[in-house]
Amino acid sequence: MSFKDLSIKNEYRSFQDNIVLDFYIPSLQYAVKYDRAVGYFSSTALIDITKGIGTLIKNNGKIRLVVSPKLSAEDIESIRIGYMNREDVLQNCLLKDFNREFNFFETKRLNLLAYLISNHYLEIKIALIQQSNSFGMFHEKLGIIEDIEGNVIAFSGSLNETSNAFSHNYEAIDVFKSWTADWERVKSKQSVFESIWNNNVNGISTIDFPHAVREKLLEYKSNDLELDLDENEYYYLKKMAVGTEEIKEPSFPLEFKLRDYQKKAIEQWEKNNFQGIFNMATGTGKTFTSLAAATRLSQLQNYNLAIVVVCPYQHLVEQWVKSIKDFNLKPIVGYSSSKQKAWKERLKTHVEAYNLGIKENFCFVTTNASLATKYVQDQIKKIDRNYLLIVDEAHNFGANNLSSKLPTNAKFRIALSATIQRHNDIEGTESLMNYFGETCINYTLEMAIKNGMLTPYYYYPIPVYLTTEELSEYQILTSKIGKLTHINKNGTHTFSDSVKMLLLKRAKLIAGATNKIHELEKTIYPYKDASHTLIYCGATTINDIEYNEFSPDADEKRQIDVVVNLLGNKLNMKVSKFTSEESALERETIKNNFVNSNHLQALVAIRCLDEGVDIPSIQRAFILASSTNPKEYIQRRGRVLRNSPGKQYAEIYDFITLPMRFEEIGNYSEREINSIKSLLFREIERMRDFTNSAENSSVSDKLIKMIENSFSLYKGEIPTDEFKEY
Fold it and tell me: Domain named Helicase ATP-binding: which ranges (predicted)?
């Protein structure tokens, strides 16, 4: 792009225009050369000259600056009588302006200025009006900017390079463009500047910038350099603007409206002293509700509020960033592979500036893993003013390794989750409640479907039976678990690490049941030409020779690889894995191809879609592996129920694992039947949950009754005895 692509006016006036944001920065971002002659010098003049030149420097551009010092009557008299030579007087005059403390932003820009000088991007000369032995102030106010195509903008007028001129005085500039009828005026002003620069104008004395002043500037050079205008400086410039209404941060997006249930959640949170839990079904706007709450709190705090957002995965961070920007915030994005390479330094300086009151607010968004690091923990602990902590998928922080990382100095708190209750973890759930406070809203999936926030769905349970070998292994594992499990005085169970390993092994056995692949092939076959299909696999393997033929060197084959092979090679479907193994860029490409069904029909995922990934166009899901943990299956169901144009309903095919066929039950003893009842109870519990909100509840109700009757279970309820516990 070039200057010709910009909307450049013929004049700018400070009470009508923001000259810095409307003219300087847009013009300088395409520049390769910037010449400026101004009538007054100060340290802020040098600071302000650096605004907007990040791209100019990246373009290897050059800046030439002609300034004039403000000489006192004593300075002029000293030169006239020869008490001091001219250069010494000028040097002392210029150095005086550095005898003060600079604020956070000024120090940053002085660092940039030192960088420009030391790397020969910037040359400065001093100009004085000289008549006989008399010296006066150079008043020329002229600027010339040139882009890579040779287009030139020349401007002149009353604007000096000072913060006072940018913010308080009434200033105006006239602008001339070389590609218009103004070209002669542009040539004339270029000629004038060259003459001044080369000391070829009668009555004007142009000399080199004093060495001592140059060295003084270089003292501000540090390694913490940012060429681009960051959000801090943008905010700073907005505060300097006159004639434009200051935009507070954060602020509500245009045409943004809260739904009634979101308003009630925020009102209750406010009543709870701005602490609480938003327990909301997937797809009902948890992110926007929390950001709206943050905006409300910020307003009440007169916009003096820091916001820290934490979420499980990097891809969720990026989704949050998009929403955060909608609320007029430009967050620091902190995780291991963040595009903001200097995010750690930025977090540190933001915390310091916020504590000192230099900065009124900032926003930091990070992952669970990055929050837990010593560096981030140390920085967060240093915040000594009010800040709001928002934790997405907060149920994760009930785990011991994460609960200790929740900061104690966060006065305001929001926990977001569709399933805040942790499965088989009473202590973890209580820990979350103690930290975040009361639940402000319980917005269920049924409510969301009824109110049109989510898509109605049809639920089809698909019975899958264990093989003889799998059933035997299941019974052996269950027996070991029972012998090693201890019952506490309060009736709950204590699971040792060895028991937890056995439970995990048994869960993987169920998730990877061989017959699931056979049933998937039969069930998905009618949809082999359809699109927008999702298949959830378990993080497990298939122990079957028939399916290991695709990997002759392995004894086991991952279930996800077997499914991809089945769909892609046997059914000729356009299919792709969607897992943590794919990079963020690859996953984004896969998502885009999935939306465009001509490129991709089906996604095969493990857990990468469980928390927060939005692909609303999913029409149907085949769930091969789903634990009894409500967190997992509620989130997976939520992925399928997102609204999408043209999507009237969704379909869910849930593969229910049963120990044996109904007609074979008589072949097993009562003891053997009892050993597999825990599996039946868990599968029924999930089926009931799915059935309660489905459009076709009669289908699964029939299967539930068959299981209860055939296996002599407690009908109509899930017992709280040892069968359910393990």
Answer: 267-438
**Length of the chain in residues, anyone?**
726
The better pLDDT of the pair 93, 170 is held by 93
Q: What angle do CA 330, 334, 335 make, to 5 degrees?
A: 145
**Residue 462, Cβ density class (10 Å: 0-12 exposed, 13-18 middle, ≥19 buried):** middle
Average pLDDT over residues 13-37: 80
Question: Could you tell me which residues are beta bridge partners of residue 461?
Answer: 654
Instruction: Show the domains of the chain with their CATH numbers.
Output: 3-240 (3.30.870.10), 260-450 (3.40.50.300), 457-725 (3.40.50.300)
Q: How far is CA 146 from CA 30, 34, 233, 543, 605, in A?
A: 8, 7, 24, 69, 53
pLDDT in tens, 643-686: 888 899 999 999 999 999 988 888 888 888 888 888 888 889 88
Residue 237 C-beta-side C-alpha neighbours within 13 Å: 22
pLDDT tens digits, one per residue of 63-77: 898 887 765 555 555
* List of residues 6+ apart from 667 with CB closer than 8 A: 660
What digits encode the pLDDT tens for the residues 31-55?
Answer: 899 998 876 555 555 555 555 666 6
Strand partners, 417: 279
Phi-psi region of 251 (alpha: psi -120 to 50; beta: other; left: phi over 0): beta
The token pair at 83 is 């008490």
Residue tagged 């469980």 (tokens)? 610
Q: Which residues pair with 146 in a beta bridge?
A: 33, 152
C-alpha 319: how far from its chain's center?
Answer: 5
Angle between helices 343-356 and 104-118 (to 10 degrees): 140
**pLDDT for res 212:** 84
What three-state secondary structure class fits 174? strand
Neighbours of 393 (CB within 10 A): 24
Amino acid (one-letter) located at 376? V
Residues 6+ apart with CB under 8 A from 468: none
Closest by CA to 143, choosing from 255, 224, 18, 37, is 37
Distance CA(545)–CA(468), nearest Å, equals 15
Interval 193-203 mean pLDDT: 89
Q: Choose among 72, 87, 209: nearest CA to 137.
A: 72
Residues 6+ apart with CB under 8 A from 389: 308, 310, 406, 407, 410, 412, 413, 414
Q: Is 384 helix (H, G, I), strand (E, B) or coil?
A: coil
Cα-Cα-Cα-Cα torsion 86, 88, 91, 92, nearest 10 degrees, comes to -120
432 vs 287: CA distance, rounded Å: 19
> What is the SS3 assignment for 357?
coil
Q: Which residues are bridge partners to 278 per DSSP? A: 416, 441
Count how many Cα atoms sit within 13 Å of the Cα of residue 716 in the half-sphere of its side chain. Answer: 0
